[in-house]
């Protein structure tokens, strides 16, 4: 019996010692893992000490006199200012089953500060760059990268120490209040189950956002089209705003997929803009339904948007409990939408059921999301993503059926409108065709008349030219014969122009190159100089209006005649260069030059001087300016403008 009492006493003392050690130190085992993740959220076992001392990473260091402060989800307002100067150390000691230690593969750490993680005295990981100086600190930005690998060597007791700095946390809280990121951090261990999720966290989140954005963008475009088609239909504008707000909220909630933010900028996008945008969109749901189904009794629900703004303000000036406020509003919105749905169904609006079920679905999934965030319930990762997707797209998917119905009505209305406009257009086309036919007949008559006029003018000018030739033949005075020949050539230049007009398709324009060629041939023949003098016309095909071509032809006639008469005395052979060039829109340059003897600018005018006066007069008529060069033969440039602006082309 003594031996039995002794063995029993030893057994009891041994168990009490074990119980005491477990009472002093948290113990982790497989039952604490949730989907492969175990957060070290042991509230009474964390120890905190302000300041910095590398010796605090030593597992043997006695931290019994440290402060009991849990860093997990630590808000800035919960940390006394006397204990936080921007940095400090947290320590926790725990025991673990060997199998649990063996199953750990990753270290999970979530923080907007900077931290160094020491396990059993060894530095195992760093996040950002710890510093006691706020200017040298580089805070960590949580992203969608996988958790860091970690293998733990089994031992009886493990000590985890976190050297941590977050200088901006207090200042951020003073600015953003409850929107501010936590002062502390989340830390834990994960197994292969969590590691698999962690490796695919970025593609999973990106896929989730892609589904949400794709659906919302499609619906946003459809509603914008509906709104612009039916400007008087206010529901389309409201639903467009809701879809836009949901889209903005979804993008802001996943902003870290695309942009690296910090503890100051992240609250602006991920918290304030996200919360406000979704709140505004959600607050408009009852009003969108009442206006969609024209239930004027509930048009007052548009004022619910002020509750969304009040909710945002509540984060800065705390009045209501966040969870209670959200739950009350969500339940109230659900009740309102059920009442609206019942009234719409009584009016035999079949689309109301689908639309309102979608809206109520959004409310239910929002309520679940808020309960998960408040840790009142827990969901697996898969169901959390499903809840997140349905939260954003339930209402848009609910109204998709309604959109289909509305677009069906739109297409029918458009088809009828197109048919009516087609009939009107056909009638207009018939009237235009008739008018065009009449105009064409009149135009053809006018063209024939104008051609006949030009033909008769040309014939009359030939008669005048013939009379001049007869008169010249009866004169014995060579000077008079020369005058008569010059007059005959002037008449011929105009006759050639009218001949070109009635032979051309365009009665208002003359092709100048061919006209100059015929004019030069006629002048050379009249003076019988075709063999001795060669005229080279170097220019592109160019059309000019009649008002410009007539004086230009007379000018070329005078200048060419002068060259034939005076540039090549004593039967010398020579060349004359003639060209017309378009300088810009309505500006042209006529150039005529010869390689003859030339003449001094001060030389006395030979002959009567009538030709020179005529050239000056005609040049002024076409707004031209004459430039002479007699240094090597004679070269005359005339810069002028077309008399019909914009009518000429090259």
UniProtKB/TrEMBL annotation:
SUPFAM superfamilies: ATPase domain of HSP90 chaperone/DNA topoisomerase II/histidine kinase (SSF55874), Galactose-binding domain-like (SSF49785). Gene3D superfamilies: Galactose-binding domain-like, Histidine kinase-like ATPase, C-terminal domain, PAS domain. It catalyses: ATP + protein L-histidine = ADP + protein N-phospho-L-histidine. It is an enzyme of class 2 (transferase). InterPro entries: Galactose-bd-like_sf (IPR008979), HATPase_C_sf (IPR036890), HATPase_dom (IPR003594), His_kinase_dom (IPR005467), Sig_transdc_His_kin_sub2_dim/P (IPR011495). PANTHER family: ETHYLENE RESPONSE SENSOR PROTEIN, TWO-COMPONENT SYSTEM SENSOR PROTEIN. Its EC number is 2.7.13.3. It comes from Shivajiella indica. Keywords: ATP-binding, Kinase, Membrane, Nucleotide-binding, Phosphoprotein, Transferase, Transmembrane, Transmembrane helix. GO terms for molecular function: kinase activity. Pfam families: HATPase_c, HisKA_2. Residues 452-644 form the Histidine kinase domain. The chain crosses the membrane at residues 206-228, 235-256, 268-287, 323-340, 352-370, 382-403. This is histidine kinase.
